[in-house]
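User: Hello! I'm new to structural biology and keep hearing that structure can be predicted from sequence alone. Could you demonstrate with Repeat domain-containing protein? Please show me the input and the output so I can see what each looks like.

Assistant: Of course. The first part below is the input, the amino acid sequence of Repeat domain-containing protein. The second part is the output, the predicted structure written as tokens.
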Amino acid sequence: MHRSLNVFGDARLVVALASLGLAACGDDGTATDSAAGPTTTGTATTTDGTATTTPDVPTGTDSTATEGSGSMSETVSPTEPPTGTTTTGTTDTTATDTSGPVSATETTTGTTGPSCQGAECCEMGEVFCGEVCCSVGEVCNFTKCELPGAECKEKADCAEDEYCDYSLGEPDVKPPDPMCMGGVAEPTGKCLTKPPLCGPNDPPQDPNDPECLQSCEYATGGEFNPIVKFAWGGVVNPPYSSDIMMTPIVVQLDDDDCDGKLTERDIPEIVFSTFTSGQYGANGSLHAISIEDGVVVDKWNVLAGTVNPTKQLAGGDFDGQPGTEVVACGKNGEVFAVKGEDGSLLWTANQTCFMPAIADLEGDGNAEVIVEGAILDGATGAVKASFNPILNSSFVVSDLDDDGVLDIITSSRGYHADGSVFVDTMLAAESQFYATQDWKSPWPAVADFDLDGAPEVVVIDNLNHALSIWRHDPNAPNGFAVVRSPVDINGTLDPASCPQGSWGRTHGGGPPTVADFDGDGVPDVGTAGGIGYAVFSGAALVDPGVAGPDTFLWIKKTVDCSSASTGSSVFDFDGDGKAEVVYSDQNRLRIYEGPTGEVLLERCNTTATLIEYPVIADVDNDGQADIVVVSNAYGKNDPNITCVEDGVNGQSGVRVFGTAGGKWVRTRRVWNQHTYHITNIHEDGSLPVGEEPNWTVAGLNNFRQNKQPDSERGAPDAIVAVAPLCEDRDYSLVATVRNVGEAALPAGVVVGFYTGEPDTGTKIGELTTTKALYPLESEALKLPFNDAPDDVKNGIVDVYAIVDDTMVPHPEWQECRVDNNTGTSTGKCLIAG
């Protein structure tokens, strides 16, 4: 008899057994892992003791059918009787109170009558769970009785500490939509409590009563062997129609999986503006592309001849309606908002616009679009407040004065959400920001450098190639204090490396990035000038005892003599807690090692440069970070721009770089604006109501850095249980795949079915999972097997299932454990007796 049931909370097993009144009696099938080790009745156990799982016993009627290898895969719902072997057992029919959990310790029905123990003591409709019988309607979730919660279709329908258990619901199957990614089935379930993840100091878990799930991480190895995964454009000869010289954004624009919702599970779009014939100040065109089934797909191309291709974009849900939108700047001073689904015009506003941002400033659920001339209503484009005069530099949005309302922060000023100034430092305030075609600006960013809980504003003064830091202090004279006086960002590099008369020779400094480059727990600052890329120690910058030249962590020579204003992004590709720099100058894309500046990657990437920079996001939903970089070829014959790769001089368009071996960590599927910071945007493109200050969130305190909010190394962990299913005269095997890891398990995972030990037995078929399985989700796959031999049906030869049963590599995802990928059971069906 089974004594250890449902260790990892497969409610389907206990619900089905209770419906037969068998209380899990009668089956001596086993489930083992694929490594050598002891077999535990009714469980699947890893040999290292890190996790123990109870196999899912599938139940239910046939539902959606998916084509498998020579057979049909059918998702099974929980309304169907379970199956297993036949064993005669005694069930105590003495009436018991079912108003709550009842102890299932040994009892006796009479002085000479048979005794019951464990599951045998439970009444019909009750569920044996650990040492008790749960009440009718409850399930045994992670060895504890629980009444299932609300109905759900996805994790977002449940509370933060719950997940959606699809084994408790009925599938709602939609026919495939030819416009979608193959069509999807929409299962329903009920919310159940998630188990906690075990901490580093938690003791080893009892396999029969775990209090937490073991951490599931995959060490990437940090290899930097990137390849070009996808490319768009590539027109490197006149009229250079795919040239781009602005920062692309990554944002969800449409429902790719046809579930009726725009969620982070959809495939994001890459949005950018192009120009032709070197005319980068006018006649731009706005594009959206996406990666679907491994192919670049053009979604839409709008506002041709209308947008200014040198100016920036922002994307997200700012109109208060379902879906997301994109805001762009026009060549004649307009602001355009377009609908994400098709690029159609939403509204137009006549306001000064260069680097728009979106945010819910007041936390009232109504988003604003902020541009250099005004604060606009996100839904209509109406002016809510004007800046008079217009802003004196680029800006960022954050709560600088800690009043719970977001502020607009330039290099020298702080503005409230009504457009009024509350602090003016008069530092790095330059009218030249608007006097140049290329908008060479002082650039601010916000972070907590001294770790006192209050932010500082770091400013890169492009006119004077200098870095400074100030903070808002209402108790100080004029409401601010200077934390770091200007430091020359060129350090000891020689400006003469840029030609006489070029901007980079006498000026320079691009938008700053903020991240912990050296792993000391304090955010640092990176910025690109005309002649070099410099990283400054955040700890040194706020230490008054450290002289300016001594605040450098490192500086590396680069070439950006044209604008000397390019930006950069940072990302921890290998998950070691130290951020790498991603930067493209006039001719090369480089990745620098955070603490030292060692070059980890160098590839040709030509651009005449403005303020663009590469962005990092998972653009193809493969669970790995990607680098999205743009380029232009119209200036490729300039000696400072020329770069020949594979016999071709110049690059143009969009390229997506990824690692060839699946060795980079996962990240978010969004980078929605030039001033990107994680707390400003949800992964589905919606805006937070009451944005948290980035510097107060554990693991953040950064700017222009992407990361996964949970474990960067989080990985899936697939386990499988197999059981026979007898329906009238039909005989089938059902394998239930469950993901007990920390990251999603992609769809398309192969499950092989065997009679006898897989190494020496017979493979009878294989199926593939049909949907992504998020942590704790499961899917049952049914393999018809009416011609099963008698020794299988009689229980003489066991049946096996192996998840990820393929020799084909899948570098886009890796499991944290592979020694628990096999499940086994008797082939003999359980019959009520």
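User: So the tokens describe the shape?

Assistant: Right, they're a compact way of writing down the 3D structure. Reading them back into a model, for example: The mean pLDDT is 82.
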